[in-house]
């Protein structure tokens, strides 16, 4: 068409030159309801610095956020 090409969103690629959409790279995903111009994401890494405390009636867990969300 007359419109210029645009880059694929992060973590996606095209299968051929002039493709009309971009597919997610291996290990990355896009929800069915997500628009095709939305970046593909993957599962987050594990939480960091997990600490557990147990007493007679409860268990308390504390952690730092994952390195990659």
Automatic annotation (TrEMBL):
Membrane topology: Single-pass membrane protein
SUPFAM superfamilies recorded: Fibronectin type III (SSF49265)
GO cellular component: dendrite; plasma membrane
Compartments in which it is found: Membrane
Example of a GO MF term: transmembrane-ephrin receptor activity
GO biological process, one term: axon guidance
PROSITE patterns: FN3
Location of the Fibronectin type-III domain: 43-69
Residues forming coiled coils: none
Predominant cellular place of this UniProt entry's protein: membrane
Keyword annotations of the record: ATP-binding, Membrane, Nucleotide-binding, Receptor, Repeat, Transmembrane, Transmembrane helix
Organism domain of life: Eukaryota
Protein name from the UniProt record: EPHB2 protein
UniProt lineage: Eukaryota, Metazoa, Chordata, Craniata, Vertebrata
Gene this chain is encoded by: Ephb2_0
